[in-house]
């Protein structure tokens, strides 16, 4: 399948893509320019696969994150579906526009070794603050892991509410196996306790490096 987007493409005639910042299993995040507000943003677009499923997850991520205003949760600015998909990509290209962050993921930092306990405690306390705000709004993240935590010069940001549980979403067990609470593997509906379990695994990894 050809690349879904390329540098210079304009999504929604508003967001001009510059270069990729990182690629995951389902999506790539691009640095882009908002041509209306003249500011740099991050734009997440699909890599390949099922456009309907990806569009549903992106909408869910945008709706969940947009419902939250918290200094430790990445801001979401916009969601759209670009009309001109490439050959081999049926339908429109879904995308979500987010706050552009400068720094690295916690996973990247931990690849260099464990953290001093004070630093680990501080990072996990900020993650806990973000989760408390999400839980108060009835949202369970479901995928807390080092790759979904971003470290910037001014603080910690929780990323990726793409599989968040709002009480109406459901379906199969989702998340990253090493961080998923055991009760979710039996089909139990996610509760805030599942995020706290995942945070405990993250804290252990921060302190031990494994």
From TrEMBL:
Residues 15-210 form the Protein kinase domain. One of its GO terms (molecular function) is ATP binding. The keyword ATP-binding applies. Coiled coil: none annotated. Its EC number is 2.7.11.1. It is an enzyme of class 2 (transferase). SUPFAM superfamilies: Protein kinase-like (PK-like). This is non-specific serine/threonine protein kinase.
């Amino acid at each position: 399948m050809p690349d879904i987007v390329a540098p210079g493409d304009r999504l929604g005639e508003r967001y001009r893509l510059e270069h990729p910042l990182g690629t995951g299993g389902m999506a790539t995040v691009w640095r882009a320019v908002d041509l209306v507000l003249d500011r740099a943003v991050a734009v997440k677009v699909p890599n390949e696969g099922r456009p309907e499923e990806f569009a549903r997850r992106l909408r869910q991520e945008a709706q969940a994150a947009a419902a939250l205003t918290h200094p430790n949760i990445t801001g979401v600015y916009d969601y759209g579906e670009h009309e001109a998909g490439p050959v081999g990509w049926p339908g429109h290209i879904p995308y979500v526009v987010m706050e552009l962050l400068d720094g690295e993921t916690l996973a990247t930092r931990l690849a260099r070794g464990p953290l001093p306990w004070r630093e680990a405690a501080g990072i996990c306390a900020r993650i806990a603050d973000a989760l408390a705000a999400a839980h108060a709004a009835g949202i369970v993240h479901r995928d807390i892991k080092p790759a979904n935590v971003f470290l910037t010069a001014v603080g910690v940001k929780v990323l990726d509410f793409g599989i968040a549980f709002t009480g109406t979403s459901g379906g199969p067990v989702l998340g990253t196996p090493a961080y998923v609470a055991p009760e979710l593997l039996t089909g139990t509906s996610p509760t805030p306790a599942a995020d706290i379990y995942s945070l405990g695994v993250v804290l252990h990894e921060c302190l031990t490096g494994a």
